[in-house]
Amino acid sequence: MDYTENALRRVNAYKGIIVDVTTDMVKLSNDAVTLREVVCHPGGVCVAALDEDDAVYIVRQFRYPFREHLWELPAGKLEPGEDPFPAAQRELSEETGLEAAEWTPLGTLYTSPGFSTERLYLYLATGLTRGTAHPDPNEFLDVDRVPLTEMVRRVESGEISDAKTVAGILRAARIRGV
Amino acid sequence: MDYTENALRRVNAYKGIIVDVTTDMVKLSNDAVTLREVVCHPGGVCVAALDEDDAVYIVRQFRYPFREHLWELPAGKLEPGEDPFPAAQRELSEETGLEAAEWTPLGTLYTSPGFSTERLYLYLATGLTRGTAHPDPNEFLDVDRVPLTEMVRRVESGEISDAKTVAGILRAARIRGV
């Protein structure tokens, strides 16, 4: 069935630092009219970097919305108009110091399709060369190298809650057959 | 390392329909001061309902932020103060008509921990009894029953982009050994 909703009128309700919010008046497929609130986000990239021993690199940051330190796959926001592939290379290098010889796109993740336009481009990076991390001046993180099997265990035990990391680790595990 | 960021001052920047936005002035772990913009969301539930033949139930809705119809696991927002377990039972019943005899919590997913407080409670539901779907008046969706192996294929091919669905399907696949 076609449930397309058509915008009748847009209100730019909030213009923020990272996100904007629009509240559109839309016509539903039964011709009823309602409001759709949308968080507009530039999107981002996420990288599962696997070395020759099937270990994966993860980073630990303080995530202010949850007031928690979280372990996640390296990731970052897209600049406006930026292509995802160079952004993935940049974020992996900045956060971990790694360069990768082979990049395999693993598709896109819509993190919250009910209310947010955030779209993450997920990559598998292999053929790794180690260098020095160079995060942004006010970006603080720890890097660790963990066997993929152990990361799968952490996903299954609930130690990893970040959705992109759960998806990226389980995709990598199927690709590597672990 | 401890990278805790402490709020110095809060601005309630936007009060919306589903989300609010706060922009807090925070002190970083190096004593620098910056702003943290946070999308405040009530959180939600997501259910991987598996029948005796290892088929999973999915729903298709129009997702206005992407102007796309998406296939997703049954899911829904929490009401303020609502416990996730009854919400999961309610959403599964409303969207698919299913009741489940056994419920296994699969932990929580943080959909966008960099900027959003959305936390999804993921469940595996088994021992299914079929009934009649009864979605909200202005909620339009199709329901399908798909073998778990086929859903894994759709995740791996990129046909499924919704992050909670990718996570839930791959968690269920590991549990069922497919």
Q: Would you give an account of this structure?
A:
The structure is a homodimer of 178-residue chains. Chain A is an alpha+beta fold and 178 residues long. Chain A has three helices and ten strands. Chain A has helices at residues 84-96, 148-157, 163-176, and strands at 6-15, 20-27, 33-40, 44-49, 55-63, 68-72, 75-77, 99-110, 119-129, 142-147. Chain A has a four-stranded mixed beta sheet, sandwiched between helices. In chain A, helix 2 crosses helix 3 (163-176). The radius of gyration of chain A is 19 Å and the shape is elongated. Chain A starts with 5 loop residues before the first strand and ends with a helix. The mean pLDDT of chain A is 97. Chains A and B meet through strand 2, strand 3, strand 5, strand 6 and strand 8 of A and strand 2, strand 3, strand 5, strand 6 and strand 8 of B.
Give the structure's gist in a few sentences:
By secondary structure, chain A is of the alpha+beta class.
Number of E strands of chain A: 10
Multimerization status: homodimer
Which two chains touch over the largest interface?
A-B, 69 and 69 residues
Distance between the termini of chain A: 39 Å
Per the principal axes of the C-alpha atoms, what is the gross shape of chain A?
elongated
Helices and strands of chain A, in N-to-C order? EEEEEEEHEEEHH
Approximate helicity band of chain A: 10-25%
- The value of Rg of chain A in angstroms is 19 Å
The chain-level structural class of chain A is: alpha+beta
| Mean of pLDDT of chain A | 97
| Order of adjacent strands in the largest pleated sheet of chain A | 7-4-9-8
The description of the largest β-sheet of chain A is:
4 strands, mixed
Uncertain ranges of chain A: none
Strand content of chain A: 35-45%
What is the overall number of helices of chain A?
A: 3
